[in-house]
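Fig. S4 source data, part A: sequence.
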Amino acid sequence: MCAALRLLETADAVWARREAAAPALALGAGQPARGLPSLDPARLHDDAAFFEQAHEALAGLPAVELDAGQDSFRRALMNDLGHRAEGARFRHLDFVVAPYTGGDLHAEAQQALRAHPLATPADREACIELVRASARQARAMLAHTARQQAQDVYPSQAALPAARAVLRSVIQTLPPAVIPAD
């Protein structure tokens, strides 16, 4: 198989993986969101491994078989994949209740829900699944924060007011049954 075709196949696989869990990408492509970003440690590990494998596949392509535009795209995608692999590997240190992560996760979920079509029964069922995913994401934010607390990993004092604001926003927009009483 030629290098250009392998480049496109790898890029398509990366796009499909990212789009499945990134509402902004799906919405930007004019499609309804199919999922939300995961905070599950096993999924983050799988994502890191996938991005590393894709990076290695691109690194193994012979640049001499690609035209200048294709090689530029290959190098840019490799750079992105390297950052994504590292980001997934160290996500456990990210404060998901802080505005720069938690706020973005929550805003993206709300955007996906507002934009989701409801014209057909399948659309409605997919939207209900997004609501369930949003609930799972809120529970995952709580679990992620509890794991950090167990490891004595805390946000700075300066970040606490904004983190409280993010949590209030999440609590106010999700059904009460989703948020644990404690």
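Fig. S4 source data, part B ends here. The mean pLDDT is 84.
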